[in-house]
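Continued from yesterday's entry.
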Amino acid sequence: MNALSENRKAFFNYEIVETFEAGIELLGFEVKSVKAGQANMVGAFATIKGGEIWMTNLDIPPYQAKNTPESYNQTRPRRLLLNKKEILYLTTKMKSDRLTLLPLKMYSKKNLVKVELGLARGKRQYEKRETIKKREVGREMRRAKN
């Protein structure tokens, strides 16, 4: 799997409970842009509308600005491709446990663009501080080791 884009902020701001793999419905020039590594996943999230899952705020700039339609919207909602059982499971989990569905990573798999989704619970401020402290201690240990 070749990671095309990652959402590192999601791992800092949220506790990831469970992950899923989904296809994403893209236009041709959007696929080229994603494979060139231009997708921005910060601030993106998934919503459920009409029995389908839609990715909102996923920013994919045009691959070649002059060759894209004038009406192209970079942050338009994009449909995610999942089985009905998975959609039903995600719907019940999100409503009952108050979880959010976030994109964690985009990658190519057999020439298809896939999205790794994570069911996430928001971290509190003190949990974020603990994460920062652990990271700093690890850095100091590596520096002392060298």
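--- second protein ---
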Amino acid sequence: MKKPNAIPFDFVIEQLFSLDPKIKPMFGCHGIYVGEKIMMILRNKKGSHEDDNGIWLSTKKEHHDSLKKIFPSMRSIQVLGNGETNWQILPVDADDFEESANKVCDLILKNDPRIGNVPKARKKSSKKR
């Protein structure tokens, strides 16, 4: 039986504790939800696209410029393809990673509208009998 992955950067969960965050396994990572919104994904995978390890922020392109002023190391996630993506990363190997992680938690605690999105509803699969 495969051992479940430990949650990386669990200090983030502790900081968001007052918001009762929900943690959902996603693609070998951990999605962090507050209410209906996905706020971030915590990723620290060994041997696979390690340059994309860190905190993936759920945001929108129109917020990137203002967030980049707060998080200078923020960038698009390379494993998601070329070009700018809605999802952005605070890379774990950045010099300001822990400081940035703390700042993003502060934004979430203040209900900053630039962080978090309600995921699109999944289509229910119709099973033929």
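The mean pLDDT is 91. The beta strands are 22-26, 29-34, 37-43, 54-57, 75-76, 88-91. Will compare against the first tomorrow.
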